[in-house]
Design goal:
heterotrimer, A alpha/beta, B alpha/beta, C alpha/beta, A: alpha/beta, 5-stranded mixed sheet, 3-stranded antiparallel sheet, globular, B: alpha/beta
Chain lengths: 312, 331, 275
Amino acid sequence: MEVKIKERLSQLFDEQKINCAIIFEKGTMPDKNAPNIIYNKEGLNNLVWNSMNWNNLANYLPKLLGKKIGIVAKGCDSRSIVLLMQEEKVKREDLYIIGINCTGMIDMKKIAKDFGAEISETIFEKDSVKVKGKASEKEYKVKDFLLESCQVCKYPSPVIYDEVLGEQVKGFEGDNYQDITEFEKLSSEERREYFYKELSGCIRCYACRNSCPSCYCQECFVDSNQPKWLEKGQNIDDIFFYHIVRAYHMVGRCVDCGSCQNACPMDINILKLTKKLNKDVRELYKYECGLDPKNTPALSTFEPDDYNEFIK
Amino acid sequence: MKKVTKTEFINFLKKQSETFDIIAPIKGDKGIDYDIITDFDKIIFDHVNTDRSFKRFLFPQSQTLFEFKEGVITEAKKQNKKKFIVGIRNCDINSLKVFDYNFIEKEPVDTFYKELRDNTILITAACPASNSTCFCTSFKIDPLSIGHGDIGILFDKEEDSFYIQGNSSAGKDIVDGLSTKDTSDFDQKKEKYKKNHEKNRDLIKDKNLVEIFQSKLEDEKWGEIFKGCIGCGVCTFYCPTCYCFDIEEQGKFWNGKRVRNWDSCMFPIYSKETTGHNPRPTQKERYRNRVLHKFYYQLKHNNEYGCVGCGRCITNCPTNIDIRNIIKTFI
Amino acid sequence: MKNTYIPITMEVEKNYFETSDRMIKTLRLKFLDERFDFEPGQFCEFSILGKGEAPFGIASSPFDKAGLEFSINRAGVVTKAIHELRIGEKVGIRGPLGNYYPVKEMEGYNVVVIGGGFAFTTLRSLIEYMLNPERRGKYKSIKVIYGARNPGLLLYKDLLENWEKRDDIGTYFTIDTKVEGWNKMVGFVPTITEEVAPSPENCYAIVCGPPIMIKFTLPVLLKLGFPKDKIVTSLERRMKCGIGKCGRCNLGEFYVCNDGPVFNFEQLEKLPKEV
């Protein structure tokens, strides 16, 4: 896979079809890879493709507006590209999308916990990873340690691409919002308690916001002081307010890539909020975002004969 | 120096808890981190380092500077319970050189930091091992030292015993009451742990970073090294030496308080002016500022690095920006 | 030990629009129980409880001991609240903060003060200081070049008229484009500077103005032969604590609040280009 991606991007640079590319590079640590933007084919030397590439690369597109961009896209990345096209943050003709049929990304934090010692090396095979420490070694099946979002991913294959690499992968066929259905059964007090406990760890570093491709506002509402929507301290209600409003800004715009949660250094379950709203959008509007660029996002459409009274 | 058994040491901490809040590393959902201790048997001593540094106990993420009601200003209520922080690693304790300089030595004195600092007993602990992300030796920090803080300890897991030494006068007073076993094997024990620190790399090797960076302020490499940086605040909030803060008004109009909160130079809004002009318009300038502040500005003015080599920014960065590579790039 | 973040209370004594576009208001504040002295070029943190704090250069003369004057452009939350203040209302002030113009080093030198737009506040403080009978003898010739887009946008018009009448200060007031009724100079500050600036020998140039003015005036001064360490300016930066703690206002190795706001160009040249 790696070799093919390199080959293709190298050609695209040569043919001057692209002047930059968003790729993953081999990280400086055995449990991380590094997303990077490169501007020539020499930059391809460190390119890597394995199951640690969880970052959503579409996140970098709005900043590169106007350039000819080559992008390596998993299913979720491609859905974000569709969303950004719909919202006019990127033009299809500026993109060359190398789609990757994604077999799911691995939760290295979970593996680190299981492994128990410092990881000194990871070796990826087709569907497993060999983890080496100073004194021990263990092999993990990728599918047993998938990231939460990848476990229930319905669209592992790119929905938009110029070419696609890898074998066709079957998406998750069950109900991907099963956990939310369960969560909904709790009383409102229990749910509140859950979120207060979960969010009490938030340090407001905004890694969730900044790793999200849909969060591209020039000025985020948390940074605005005219009007000032919320205070910046560690008051739990402000933290709660931030996460709820961010989730509401995601209504019909979240592709379930999970990068917010994966970026969180405090391991907060942010997906509970966004997934609940995604579930609602699917039920109320029969809409899933980031599938077809010709569609308009759920909350951006209006029809005069809408059956809802309130909207008329 | 004294040597006590683990049980004796735990009892010693329990006794201190009558006067102090004992803060020590325990295992939480995520990892090992400092917390106020209620169950003394849960304290962990043999870890490499805590998930976060102890910075938040001396410089809370959010701190009230004063309160006001109907236009009348009053001092904020303070928690006066003294703190006793156990198990501070040598990298983290060195971050206080940065904090003390900024908040105490440099006029005017920041009373909030000083009060917390004066009311806290710091127990440093020799580090049993280094992680691959550790590079404290770059800054002439000895990970096995027990000579910093009020009290220094070395925990020997094999024997389940502690070597303990009072450093400051307050620390000596506290340690005085302990009975002791023979401590003559201390150097031997220390030597034993030395081999666990082979991974700890000296990246600077006596190079003069002030001179190096002075000539590289506009180097084109600044345009590359920040790579996929998404501009979140993880590195700065996890950093034991980052002290920047924002001041904001909380509450409504005439009744409220003025509060300071941690801030991050990685955020665009950090330097954005009211007019909309931003002197550091892209992540390139922001990242350069962070690096130069740590390895040039502070070094020039305070003769101390703004980095202690704890590696937390490396392990927690969501896009794998590695400060070690940045040092290597420029020297 | 004193909590350095608590301001002293002062009372609004006077407030009036300074410019014809009603964007800049001058406020005179009266010292109440606590007071302080300051040097020309220093600034204060001006605090409106419940709204916040913002830094402003002191515009009045250090010899004016009863109060402080500020000329404040309406831009954000705090400045909007300041514009809405009424006479008799109480405000908080922390100061004096920062360093000041090199008034001691300038003794025995000629001085040319070059200002543009509403960045003339601390320059006014400086000029009034130098013109004070106690100080005037210490400086040789004093020249002032001051420009604005149009006559209505010049600050301190009465004062400017007074200076024109004196013979111990040379005045060159200019506007960008000609308007009816204006009988002084017309042209941009850099151009006027080139025409009327004194010889660089034994001379300090104090320059304050919008970035674009600085950008074009600096080369003129260098061309005229002013040494870089004799060209002095005062900078602004997003600032919070004002006392060198919060780290917000750093410009390269300097904190603008503590090491500045007054710098010479020899210092600025060695910093990353982040103005």
